[in-house]
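User: Can you help me understand a structure? I only have the sequence.
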Amino acid sequence: MLHHVNCTAAALPGLRTVEILSARSFPRHAHDEYGIGVMLEGGHRSWSGRGQVEARPCDIITVSPNELHDGIPLRGAPRRWWMLYVEPALLAELAGAGMASREFTLPALADPLLSRRIAGLLQQMPESTADEAAQGVLDLFGELLDPRSESTAPALPSRGVARMLERIHDDPRNAPALAELAGIAGLTPYAALRRFRRELGTTPHAYLLQYRVRLAHKAIGEGRSLAEVAQLAGFADQPHMTRAFARQLGLTPGQWRTALHPPRAR
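Assistant: Let's start by predicting it. Here is the structure, written out as tokens:
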């Protein structure tokens, strides 16, 4: 199946661009970063906490940290999109903690002028200095992040789901059985599964897998070896990590590591 990815780190740590041409579908997952970009060719349909959305050529795509979403190509045809990812810690450093607690208003929107601005920023990013990259991020995020979301507390999971999440986060290397999670939540297994899916949009098993991928993503950024990362994140081995990582994020752990630490020219 057609799938090509190009990931590039910017001069400013905490900033990267990813361009993907793919016919693949991506399961529900989340990122630790803010993401904003442009659909260049084709289109896809995405589920998000705000409902189903579609992005077509020249549409803007956004995702906030921890926002669960997926991606399915329209009519099964390949699509190409280009994204800028920004770590919340970098945004807080540049603009303050208030800015880094805001969210994007819409997962997809049509604005041709803004779309061209974003595409221009993405095109310039590899050659930009750290100061130029910072200014571009501030201009763009200051305009698009909803200031009202800063003071609006996100909906908290119910007590039972919160307890299930706590178990998963505390020990992601040891996958809990549904019966164990249900016992922690004080529910039957069927009720626990239904409530988890209703509140988070995914199953406990799928959530655990995407949480492990996020742990691996972060650990690679810290410079750990891939074998160490696989063990740390709770994968059976490195090939299992590679398959899950690529399925959710579109690039392999090795590609992500190379983007962060490109080999020096001899």
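Now, to help you interpret it: The two ends are 35 Å apart (CA to CA). DSSP finds ten helices and twelve strands in the chain. Let me know which part you'd like to focus on.
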